Amino acid sequence: MASGPSVNLLDMASSVMSAAVGASLTIRAFALPEDSNKNARLKVDGTFVTDADYAAQQIITSAVQRVSTNVRILGEESPEGGAKIPQEKLEHASDAGMREGCRREVFLRFKNRSGGSQAPQSLPLAVSSHDATIENKPSYDLSEDEKKEVIVDVSRVCVIIDPLDGTSSYAKGKYDAVSVLVSVNLDYQPHFGVICKPFGYEGLPPVMGTPCAAVYGGPLLGGGFIAGGDTLLPVSAATQPTNSENPSSDLPRAIISSSRSKGVVEDVCKQLGMLGVIDPTPMHISGAGEKALRLVLRQHNEGLWFFPKSGTSLWDVAAADAMLRSLGGKVTDKFGRPLDYSKSRDEAENEDGVIACADDKLHAECMRVFQNGKWEE
């Protein structure tokens, strides 16, 4: 048990999960026709930001501080740049029903992972309305061993926030690439993550009757889950071709950006395809959060996000890193080293790139090919 100020990781996980949905609803509100320009502007680093970015981060930050004011927060947006949120756009940001639903679902997942009797047969986030009465309210009691696991010294915890990933697409009215990404890190390692899609997602159920969809999980819960869904996310296994007529159709696929894939990204993916490690045709996907979500869901056999150069930051990958750790995947830099989550906001860029895989064996093979070759940026 922590001897100083402590924080309950289950409370923190459920709070940021609820806030991710609240932030998503606020992002939707800012996307209404009367806000068509979304007050988009460039930051000093050359990236876009909108009022919705700041509003979403404010919502999530407030949710973190509701659990503990002492937890370190690493957010993409500078706190000094925050915009005032119109009250009408805060309707769902602090909804008590959503907070309770997330708390119950996270707790049920945790107890089920621990071998308890409270299997999540009826998930709170699957109800049709955030105002709905959720029956079979669980007890939030924890055993002494469980308390030792989830109640930790606050100095060991950091919450990493990307309040609106895909801002450039969002400002242009292209919403498929938009995501809200939050991770709860323990001892500088991703321990719980949530990826929320403000405008919904094909194949995922809505969260408590909202238009949003979400996935969550990590070592804290021992797996990955669809919010309100009745199935677990799949644990990766080494992919072997099984279709003799078209073996490549069974291979994992690379997901890359069409605008930033020239040079080493395309060359390495092409080589991996020639070797039969991945499908020779990569998928061109916008948004770091969208790429991360695809690795977690693997709906179309997505298996590799290869980007061995600067251009992403810790908040782009932390949430997916948490889930992939529980799903058989792996996230490193281009040297095969774990990402350094101890860095400050000013140092948060992944200067040595990101190599993320849904399967650790695929990651090892990708690293072998990359490190043994001579590539030009």
Automatic annotation (TrEMBL):
InterPro entries: CysQ/Inositol_MonoPase, Inositol_monophosphatase-like, Inositol_monophosphatase_CS. It is an enzyme of class 3 (hydrolase). Keywords: Magnesium, Metal-binding. The keyword Magnesium applies. GO terms for molecular function: 3'(2'),5'-bisphosphate nucleotidase activity; metal ion binding. Transmembrane segments: none annotated. Its EC number is 3.1.3.7. One of its GO terms (biological process) is phosphatidylinositol phosphate biosynthetic process. Its cofactor is Mg(2+). It comes from the Eukaryota. Mg(2+) binds at residues 76, 162, 164-165, 316. The keyword Magnesium applies. Belongs to the inositol monophosphatase superfamily. This is 3'(2'),5'-bisphosphate nucleotidase 1. It comes from Seminavis robusta.
